[in-house]
Amino acid sequence: MQYIPSKDELVLKIRPVKGRPNKDFQHFKLWWDDEGNIAAIGITNYLKELKEFRKNLNVIQLGGIWKGVKITEQDIKKIREELLTKLEEEF
Q1: b/e map of 58-69 (b: 16 or more CB within 10 Å)?
Q2: Which of 3, 46, 57, 79 has the fewest CB within 10 Å, making it most exposed?
Q3: How far lies 4's CA from each of 18, 45, 47, 72, 81, in Å?
Q4: Smallest Cα–Cα separation from 40: which of 49, 29, 56?
Q5: pTM of the full structure
Q6: In what order do the strands lie in the sheet with 9-13?
Q7: What range does the domain containing 60 cover?
Q8: pLDDT tens-place string over residues 42-81
Q9: Nearest to 28 by CA among 38, 10, 43
Q10: Number of structural domains found in the chain
């Protein structure tokens, strides 16, 4: 594993690679061999992506009928209490 500060890039080489990545999308680069085995993974803008990942670690994007709905910590606590009450009633 190698971090290149001048490029803000993290590269994990599993096997030696030659040339450009086989797949380059957004901030990720993938190299694979002739058999389809991953040889290396690169993450550009690593520190920025790491910061975004940590910021969004406890956030889940809701879709479908839930799109745009915000669930607060209070909502979670209220539902948790209701579930505990129902469990206590059953046992």
Answers
A1: eeeeeeeeeeee
A2: 57
A3: 18, 10, 11, 39, 48
A4: 29
A5: 0.53
A6: 2-4, 9-13, 38-44, 28-32, 23-25
A7: 2-90
A8: 999 888 888 887 777 777 777 777 887 888 889 889 999 9
A9: 43
A10: 1
